[in-house]
Fold:
Amino acid sequence: MKINKISLLMMVWGGLVFAQNQKYTMAEAVNGLRSNLAVKNIAQPSWIPGKNTWVKADKNAYIYNDLATKKSDTLVSLHQINKNFTKEKALKRMPFVTFLSDNSGYYKTDSTYTKLDKVNGEWKVKTWMVIPAKAENITVLEDVNTVVYTLGNNLYANQNGKAIAITQDKNENILNGQAVHRNEFGIDKGIFVSPDHKKIAFYRMDQSMVADYPIIDWSVVPAVNHNIKYPMAGKPSHHVTLGVYDLEKGTTQFMKTEGDKEQYLTSIAWTPDNKSVFIGILNRDQNNLDMNLYNAENGNLVKNLFNEKHPKYVHPTTSMIAVPGSSDDFIYQSEKSGFNHLYQFNLKKGLQKQITTGNWAVTSVLGIDPKTKDIFFVSTKETPLEKHLYKVGYNNSKVTRLDKEPGMHNGILSSNFEYLYDSFANADTPRKVDIINVKSLASENVLKADNPLTKYAQAQVKNVSLKADDGTPLYGKLILPKDFDPSKKYPVIVYLYNGPNVQIVTNSFPASGNLWYDYMTQNGYIVFTMDGRGSFNRGLNFENATFGKLGTVEMEDQLKGVDYLKSLPYVDADRMGVHGWSFGGFMTTSLMLRHPDVFKVGIAGGPVIDWSMYEIMYTERYMDTPKQNPEGYKNANLLDKVQKLKGKLLMIHGAQDDVVVWQHSVDFVKSAVDKGVQIDYFMYPGHPHNVIGKDRVHLMQKVTDYFDLYLKK
Structure:
């Protein structure tokens, strides 16, 4: 049978078109990037200490890559490890190994730590330490054969196989060694080890004065109540102190952080000589920060290093970083210039200089080269929509960009400060990994991932820049169907968050920012999303523009987006929906009630309804207390505005939600019933803030079906 060239071309083109127009399933839209549509990545990358060698996990082995010799080979394999075990005790998969050198490391299985050592070319294993199965907050001190951990509410150390109780508090409301202040202020741990690994600083939190709050587990019959301590705005807060345990002496000394017992302790760090501890003391009003230095031996205040004040709030989230080779010089991060920047501070001379400057933010510090004193950091210097890798001279403040391509970059600095492992993505690049020479800026690509979405009908994404009432640029994305027809009228969904510490519009992959957006465009919708004032990575003034009036300035900005949408001839202004979770749920409900003529449909997931029922640390930073700011709380409270609802509102909440507690939506439903207002409500017996897998798919199907019911013609 003969096939002419034109027919063959049409067959090939037809197959290509079909291959690029496949629709996402809901499971793929919600979980695909973590499952069948996952972008290829390098597993468990790390640097061998002291060498220009990086390691990755590959199937059942770790592969080393020597940058000096350009040699790549197996460092250790599962087969080599299992030579040490009987068939019955052999490991089924490669464990996660922490390498101490190219000849030694350790891994953890269940509650056992196992040491790996290469002896005469063979990898040998031995049991190193065993800790209780329920141990949490585990910190390993490799050089002194010690593991520090929490068990229940107390802190322990296993030193050379011997378990030591560092604390012995019988009151379960006194917690030791755990993160405090509900993980605000950048706090993500409660154990801080001295540089010589001989002393352990730890948080002690007494929350007995905080009211109990019931969290009901509905998965069992009868249901079971679990009380948690949930400090609500304006109510009593917990009391926190910092202890220091000496592993050699077996003694504990608490730092004498005098003042209001409800003050916040953050920015914990040790001095290089192991003698003193930095503690940032933030008052409960969160507008006054004292950075203090305390003697670790006797707990006495050594000196107040500096004070920061702000009429709205000070928000410390980082610790002092010691400059290598100096006992007195440190790097501190502060937003006092309006953007988060690096400052040089000397213990004897005080503030020396601001190292980085400009209308952009340092987002993290990767390390400081002990030879050159170059500081490696990540920032938004090029654009607030991207993150890039830089170094800055400690002495001359010269900033050098280290990467070359646009996008969101993350770096891992080698221990000898000569190379950076740079993993990044942008709208057109699912993932690339480069190894960058930080001196020559030469780079070697070690991974360029294929686009796993090529066979799908990917949305058209247009970057949008609008202006707030004060002229501030607002960045958003207009997400259109692949087969977009400008002569048609489309329903629109506005997806938002617009709360503190979150940014949803960036130059990342996928271009839309979320495959559920693409899914909705494949089903006939336009999606719009924008970060208004109050959101992250735009500087202090941009963030605190919402101070004292949450849900007001943010709505003004989102309504600028609505005006833009209404100006587009292909947008059906009578079929607009709005959707968000948590703070986005608060925003969704606020828009439906305070601007009831804008959206036909709203779906609020886990919304804050009354800020007086949200946690102290977050709420009082942005709203002060209900007593200090009654008008702000009244305006933001949605319970007395339910009667203004005109459109259709679906509220989704998890009964076990311990972040935005279920009472928010329960009270809202009661208020709606009392006022004769109809809303739709979906209670999920879980925690929607953390729901993943099939449960998340079911939730998003519920969201999609509700929009389809009221926005589809």
